[in-house]
Write a structure and sequence with these properties.
- There is one protein chain.
- By secondary structure, the chain is α+β, with helices and mostly antiparallel strands.
- 68% of the residues lie in helices and 11% in strands.
- The chain has two domains: 12-192, no CATH class; 265-396, Heat Shock Protein 90 (2-Layer Sandwich), CATH 3.30.565.
- It is built from eleven helices and seven strands.
- The strands form two sheets. It has a five-stranded mixed sheet, with helices on one face. It has a two-stranded antiparallel ribbon with strand order 1-3.
Length: 396
């Protein structure tokens, strides 16, 4: 079920909560729907409701329940089914008088749509935003109250009608509030995880840049040291001119190195892997990191950022979804023209083909980021065996 007040950029925990709530609701809705439709048939047999309006409403509500089952369990997003049940129930309330066409129910009987009022109000939480959901949560019990005290069917004592409406409002509101609290807390978990990942990414970037600047400083150091030595040993005009020329060349070299670093914004594979290893160990001391073939091959800053973020996101996914007893390994391999990162775990595993479209952690945060900079991502996962996420980037 959806509740749009909280919309974090990363929805790992929130998506799982939505899926759980949607499935639980679909089961509950099916049970209530079966009771609703059974009462509808019984009521129609006893009172001969107007066929057109009765079967129209009957089919709309029955179809809505079937649509909820399909969208929740097959599609992975029940929003369409939830909205259909809400609107079909509202339509049934509005046309109840047309089903009776001036007739009356037996004393003590409720219109068959009563059993759909509460579940439809809760269903609105999964279909619409906060404001529309609140309107339906209040509107359905209110409409039911006025329907009962009207002259349609069998008029009910206003006090009893108020009790029925209050029960419908309280039950649906409490369950809707429970869904909201669960989603809000899941969103807070997502936010905390995202901040941790972002902090690790910033650490990796800062460490990589620091190492790259140290490399540039080392390149310049020899020229500066040579200039100082020549200057200190200069005894005549020729030696002074040589020292002056060397000083000018050193200054020019230093400026060119600084400009090139700022313009190109490249980071060596060696620095990238070192920073990534630090970030991984900060997140989990139990993860095993193996580094092979580190080189001074330079990669663009945007590539380094995308690879770092994607690798840390894959690592975070393993931590949160592989299971407490799962073993997590990270392999970092550099080459003369690129790099390869493998995040491996022996946890629960999953079916990549069944990942919901709104699951940002895999399709956007990992695959999309790497593909955007010309890289490739391969995901190999099997239920009960584990998951391998392979990130590759090549300069060619």
């Amino acid at each position: 079920m959806q509740f749009y007040r909280v919309e974090p950029n990363k929805t790992l925990a929130l998506t799982r909560v939505n899926t759980l709530l949607g499935r639980v609701f679909s089961v509950a809705a099916s049970l209530v729907g079966a009771q609703t439709l059974l009462n509808a048939i019984t009521e129609n047999n006893q009172h001969q409701l107007v066929p057109f309006w009765f079967w129209l409403n009957f089919c709309l509500i029955a179809g809505s329940h079937l649509l909820i089952i399909y969208t929740v369990w097959v599609v992975g997003d029940g929003k369409l089914g939830f909205g259909a049940l809400t609107l079909s129930t509202a339509f049934a309330l509005a046309t109840w008088g047309l089903q009776l066409d001036g007739g009356e129910l037996a004393p003590g009987m409720q219109p068959w749509i009563w059993w759909s009022v509460g579940i439809a109000a809760i269903s609105s939480v999964g279909a619409f935003n906060v404001y529309w959901s609140a309107a339906f949560l209040v509107g359905f019990p209110t409409a039911w109250f006025f329907l009962q005290i009207s002259e349609i069917g069998v008029p009910v004592d206003p006090w009893l009608a108020l009790q029925d409406a209050s029960f419908a409002f309280l039950a649906s509101s409490v369950l809707a509030g429970f869904a909201f609290v669960m989603r809000y807390e899941a969103a807070r978990v997502d936010e905390a995880n995202q901040k941790a990942v972002e902090a690790a990414i910033q650490l990796a970037r800062a460490d990589a840049i620091h190492r790259e600047r140290d490399r540039v400083d080392a390149l310049v150091h020899d020229s500066v040291l040579t200039t100082l030595l020549v200057s200190s040993n200069a005894k005549d005009d020729a030696a002074h001119r040589e020292a002056e020329a060397l000083a000018g060349a050193a200054i020019k070299k230093l400026n060119n190195a600084q400009v090139a670093t700022k313009a190109n914004e490249k980071i060596s594979v060696n620095s990238l892997f070192s920073a990534l290893e630090v970030a991984i160990h900060r997140e989990s001391g139990s993860a095993k990191v193996e580094v092979e073939g580190t080189t001074d091959t330079l990669v663009p800053n945007e590539v380094a950022a995308a690879v770092t973020e994607s690798a840390l996101q894959a690592f975070a996914n393993s931590i949160h979804h592989a299971g407490k007893e799962a073993k997590i390994e990270i392999f970092l391999k550099g080459s003369s023209n690129g790099l390869k990162i493998v995040v491996k775990d022996n946890g629960r595993g999953f079916r990549p083909s069944r990942v919901p479209k709104n699951r940002l952690g895999l399709k956007l945060s990992i695959i999309g980021r790497v593909q955007a900079v010309g890289g490739k991502v391969f995901v190999d996962s099997k239920i009960g065996i584990g998951t391998n996420v392979i990130i590759e980037w090549s300069a060619q």
